[in-house]
Write a structure and sequence with these properties.
Blueprint: H1 11-20, H2 24-34, E1 41-44, E2 47-50, E3 75-76, E4 79-82, H3 87-95, E5 101-104, H4 111-115, H5 118-123, E6 130-133, E7 146-149, H6 151-157, E8 164-168, H7 171-174, H8 186-189, E9 192-200, E10 214-229, E11 261-267, E12 271-274, E13 279-295, H9 329-337, H10 347-360, H11 370-381, H12 391-396, H13 399-410
Parallel strand pairs: 3-11, 4-5
Antiparallel strand pairs: 1-2, 5-12, 6-7, 6-8, 8-9, 9-13, 10-11, 10-12, 10-13
Length: 411
């Protein structure tokens, strides 16, 4: 069958899009089905974009039922800029506004864009061994099996096996990366949480999820297609974590009926800003290498953003910065401070927070129960011994005490 449009030169991404999103017979069938309805239907670049409030007899009658996440639309485009915007522009118009942004060709100046082929990786000394998933499709709520593997061994196997390297980026790889311009300012660098390295032969599919921090994704080889929906679709994004992204059951997730999808192809050399709390899935095509830079907006010195340099420094490589880690004490302190309401942390709020910690690492809750664990954890946080955990208690905790708190809770 011939198609009158082309989404990307890559045969893999074109085939995926055509198979799941752009078959003209599907388009015509949808138009025929809706021609007598009150909804206005538009045919635009091969997509049918319909009124999100279109009624369905039941969730299972939705055109996206048991189809891939984002199959039915309606779709909208992300904001797009050439290269990185200035720091103040990036934060004021995108980060503070929680607005996704595609930054075309922003990473083409990074040494990695030219260097990172398999021959380079075979010779590159990278220690220690990195985590490699042994499945390419990630299912929500299920711990992904993984093994440790050196980079040169991975390169010798990944094209023939179902392997997906996902690991914190080691300094020896970060030296090939220029820290994204909006993150270079002193007012921002203290908010860096983690840089993560993603490497596969393509055809990876993430779970439907949200990130724990603000995220700049840069692609150095291949294409990543992201489907995002605004967090307002559901008040608790964890609700969607058990979705099968290849076959979405609308009977289980009826709030998706009215969802509008932001869909973006992040090509090699592009970077994309994913706001925290936006629900999304990522699909990769062809030999695929990417890095994500996570940062925590709570730690950004917002009063100094306006004074940041307009242009970035191409000599500032990402290995020269400290990354606090999602499990680090500084992030934990901010998370606990967020729990302080009406002057103190309630037992219920701490119990819910601990439950999220267990869910994040996909570990079963202790048989004694979350409430009993939270009761003991509150005592550890109560620096003054007055049976109330207030802001001052959290601020007085040392980094070691915060580390011990986390170890106690998850042990």
């Amino acid at each position: 069958m011939e198609f009158p449009w082309n989404f990307h030169s890559s045969s893999a991404i074109s085939e995926y899009h055509r198979r799941h999103f752009t078959d003209p017979m599907i388009t015509l069938k949808r138009m025929e089905t809706k021609k007598n309805s009150m909804s206005t239907v538009f045919l635009l670049l091969g997509f049918v974009i319909c009124d999100a409030t279109t009624p369905y007899a039941s969730p299972s009658s939705h055109s996206g039922h048991l189809k891939p996440f984002g199959y039915s639309g309606p779709f909208r485009s992300a904001a797009e800029r050439e290269g990185f915007p200035a720091v103040a522009d990036f934060f004021e118009n995108y980060v503070f506004a929680k607005r996704p942004l595609l930054m075309k060709n922003a990473a083409k100046s990074h040494p990695a864009f030219q260097l990172w082929d398999d021959d380079y990786f075979r010779q590159k000394i990278v220690t220690p061994p990195m985590s490699v998933r042994t499945v390419k499709k990630q299912s929500g709520g299920v711990k992904t099996p993984a093994v440790s593997m050196k980079l040169d061994e991975f390169v010798s196997r990944y094209q023939a096996e179902e392997l997906y390297m996902v690991n914190q980026a080691p300094p020896s790889l970060l030296e090939d990366i220029v820290l994204p311009n909006p993150l270079q300012c002193d007012a921002v660098t203290s908010s860096l949480i983690e840089s993560r390295f993603w490497f596969s032969s393509g055809d990876t599919r993430s779970s439907v999820h949200t990130d724990d921090g603000e995220n700049i994704l840069c692609v150095y080889c291949g294409v990543k297609t992201l489907f995002l929906i605004h967090p307002s679709v559901h008040h608790d994004a964890r609700h969607y974590k058990s979705i099968d992204p290849d076959s979405v059951d609308y009977d289980k997730y009826p709030t998706l009926i009215g969802a509008e999808y932001t869909r973006v192809d992040v090509a090699a050399g592009d970077c994309f800003y994913v706001p925290i709390d936006w629900i999304h899935q990522a699909v990769s095509f062809d030999r695929n290498i990417a890095l994500t830079f996570f940062f925590d907006l709570r730690m950004v010195d917002k009063d100094r953003i306006a004074n940041c340099p307009t242009d970035g420094d191409f000599s500032v490589t990402a290995d020269h910065f400290e990354y606090l880690g999602f499990d680090g004490p500084k992030v934990l302190r901010y998370n606990l401070l967020d729990l302080v309401k009406d002057g103190s942390i309630s037992l219920d709020d701490l119990a819910a927070f601990i439950a999220k910690l267990f869910a994040k690492i996909k570990k079963e809750v202790p048989s004694a129960g979350i409430t009993e664990l939270a009761t003991s954890a509150l005592k550890l946080l109560d620096k003054n011994g007055n049976q109330l955990v207030k802001k001052d208690d959290i601020l007085q905790l040392t980094d070691q005490e915060l580390t011990n708190f986390r170890l106690f809770v998850l042990s």
